[in-house]
Amino acid sequence: MSGHNKWSTIKRKKGVNDAKRSKMFSKIIKDITIAVKESGADPDSNPRLRLAIANAKGCSMPKDNITRAINKGKEKDAANFEELTYEGYAPHGIAVYIEALSDNTQRTVANVRAIFNRYSGSLGKNGSLTFLFDRKGVFTIKKGDINLEEFELEVIDGGAEDFEVEDDMITITTGMEDFGSMMRKLEELKIEPDSAELQRIPHTTETLDIETARKVLKIIEIFEEDDDVTNVYHNMEISDELIDEM
């Protein structure tokens, strides 16, 4: 299992505290609002909304919350969220790629710049780090009573590049261009993923000593705590030793 996927698994096992769960819900509500404003409130004809609802169910968002988010997106005066990206370097040359959803771009860029500055990092120009990451579809699914051998053959047919099993979870990775076909394959198999999203996976990773790596992870967590930030990607190696330390 890749270091980044393994780190995600460890964080999931540790559980989600109320603050983290609230942040997850806030992100999904924004996703639902944008999807409804773009293409309407019918998930059957709106793939982005269907995906957002699937992710909401995957993180146990109550049905009433999902319904309210859809209704909010239908309102004429609903907030207009913009999708933003920021690229820069944390200390020790670790590349950081940040995705955000914001209704106030000036606030968001000011917050991101302040975090970089406070922790001796640097905010770069958009596009300056794109070459370091590939955009991949990443699906996580509870193993349950799935026949792994048969299921792996099915998802390879749907475009899977990688198929990993760790304890009770299956992680499937696809190329960005196969994200939609994998969603359709899972729907055909009547399997609802815990999460399905496009992630930025580093081509190569940088190894730091444990103490330095822990400091960089702390900065990553501070970015993740910002209300507008939805995802933070980096190219630091997440080793077994680092996971054990955490």
CATH superfamily of the largest domain: YebC, transcriptional regulation domain
Using the coordinates shown, work out and report the CATH topology of the largest domain.
Alpha-Beta Plaits
Summed up, the helix count is 9
- Pattern of helices and strands: HHHHEEHEEHEEHEHEH
- Beta fraction: 15-25%
Average predicted confidence as pLDDT: 89
Structural class by sheet pairing and helices: alpha+beta
Key terms for this structure?
4-stranded antiparallel β-sheet; 246 residues; 9 helices; 8 strands; globular; Alpha-Beta Plaits; single chain; alpha+beta
Kindly summarize this structure in a few lines:
This protein has 9 helices and 8 strands. It has helices at residues 3-14, 18-39, 47-58, 63-74, 105-118, 148-157, 179-188, 210-225, 240-245, and strands at 82-90, 94-102, 122-123, 133-142, 160-166, 169-175, 195-202, 229-234.
Description of the molecule:
The structure is a single chain. With 246 residues, the protein is α+β, with helices and mostly antiparallel strands. The protein has three domains: 3-74, Orthogonal Bundle (Arc Repressor Mutant, subunit A), CATH 1.10.10; 82-129 and 205-245, 2-Layer Sandwich (Alpha-Beta Plaits), CATH 3.30.70; 132-202, YebC, transcriptional regulation domain (Alpha-Beta Plaits, 2-Layer Sandwich). It is 46% helix and 24% strand. It has nine helices and eight strands. It has helices at 3-14, 18-39, 47-58, 63-74, 105-118, 148-157, 179-188, 210-225, 240-245, and strands at residues 82-90, 94-102, 122-123, 133-142, 160-166, 169-175, 195-202, 229-234. The strands form two sheets. A four-stranded antiparallel sheet has the order 3-1-2-8. Strands 5-6-4-7 form a four-stranded antiparallel sheet, with helices on both faces. β5 and β6 form a beta hairpin. α2 (18-39) packs antiparallel against α3 and α2 (18-39) crosses α4 (63-74). The longest helix is centred in the first third of the chain and has 22 residues, at 18-39. The protein is globular, with a radius of gyration of 18 Å. It starts with a helix and ends with a helix.
